[in-house]
Design a protein that fits this description.
Helix content is 72%, strand content 9%. It has eight helices and four strands; from the N terminus they run αααααββββααα. Strands 1-2-4-3 form a four-stranded mixed beta sheet, sandwiched between helices. A hairpin with a 4-residue loop joins β1 (121-124) and β2. The two termini are 42 Å apart.
Length: 209
């Protein structure tokens, strides 16, 4: 499993390097969006592809280990039984603790968003719902909800709404949710956080364009 995770991480490093050095400078933002969404999935698939050279090396390692199994199987059984009874898989325990923690963080984020919708003034528009945030100068969107700070000047409000409406129409929230789920599953992988930063920045380029 550790070897698989390392391979996934290395593929993601390679894909991000290609994006940063070549694709990020281009203006094909929608293609770049699919690249950033697709390559994390591809990185999980590529290590599963059986490479003949790799299989041969694994077979050689097994032939070194198998004689010990056949010549003294009682020793192997005793060692396996001792490991099972006395050891604790701390790596697995740490992994699941991280999954639980990041799941809680994700649920708290969702709760805060839904609370903003429930406690603040909401105006139904044709294509979206406008949520007015008192004493705020920030703006963001979540699916068809656009959150707008009331302290933003009237002159800027319409431009900001149009900007956020692009995020809403192009379902950018789905992209962010996708990477939130990846963060839960691979919270220890720094590449996921870099992917999330890249796609967030790309969303802004798309809306500005």
């Amino acid at each position: 499993m550790i070897a698989y995770i390392i391979q996934v991480l290395l593929f993601q490093v390679l894909f991000l390097a290609v994006y940063d050095f070549f694709l990020s400078k281009e203006t094909f933002h929608n293609y770049n969006r699919w690249y950033l969404l697709g390559t994390p999935i591809v990185s999980f698939v590529l290590p599963l592809i059986k490479i003949p050279t790799f299989q041969k090396s694994v077979s050689e390692e097994l032939t070194v280990f198998l004689p010990e199994v056949f010549l003294s199987p009682e020793n192997v059984i005793e060692q396996a039984a001792f490991y099972t009874e006395t050891s604790v898989n701390y790596m697995s325990l740490l992994f699941w603790c991280g999954v639980v923690l990041f799941t809680i963080v994700f649920l708290v984020k969702l709760y805060k968003i839904f609370r903003l919708i429930s406690v603040n003034e909401t105006i139904q528009k044709t294509f979206y719902k406008l949520v007015l945030l008192p004493k705020q100068t920030t703006a963001f969107s979540f699916f068809n909800f656009i959150f707008l700070g009331k302290n933003i000047s009237k002159e800027k409000q319409e431009d900001i709404i149009q900007h956020e409406l692009i995020h809403s129409k192009q379902k950018h929230s789905l992209d962010l949710l996708f990477f939130e789920f990846l963060r839960i599953a691979m919270w220890f992988n720094p590449m996921i956080y870099i992917y999330q930063q890249r796609i967030t920045l790309l969303h802004e380029y798309i809306s500005d364009a």
